[in-house]
Design brief:
With 166 residues, this protein is mainly alpha-helical. It has one domain. The chain is built from ten helices and no strands. It is globular, with a radius of gyration of 15 Å.
Length: 166
Amino acid sequence: MSADLTPVIAAGTRWLLTAFPPAPGAFSRALAEAQARQAVTLAAGLRYPTALDAELVLLLGPGGSARLDWLTGAEPDGEDDAWRSWVDETLVSWAACLLADASLAAGAQRVADRALAGGLTRLVRPGEHEHHAAPLLRHPDLVEPVAALHRAPLLELLENQGAPLA
């Protein structure tokens, strides 16, 4: 995966944290952001595994957050919303799947590029602090509408790559 996907990863992370806010406090915010970023980064590594894939999404555009905003009832305030155009709906959906199911995240980690998979501990082995910091982001029922959008292609990809899907 190319490092050029940084704006797409940042926008997906921001969207998740906006839609599913962390618990109060700077420590909780930092932990929730780390988890969301790891999930979106892993999703990006799975969806855009080559530099050419990354270049194509940057050339064609990731699609934006309009459908996700509608689905979750988010109402962008119109100020400083340019970042929403960088949101990739599929990455956010896959990230929601990974955040809601640590065993699925672990299977995805085994499939992903080894260079990016090493720093995903907060995602694949969340502890008590991670769950307390991001109770909405990790709640399977709350993220289900977003996760359900593109779960089938994620599961198919992981199955085709030989990842155990518990």
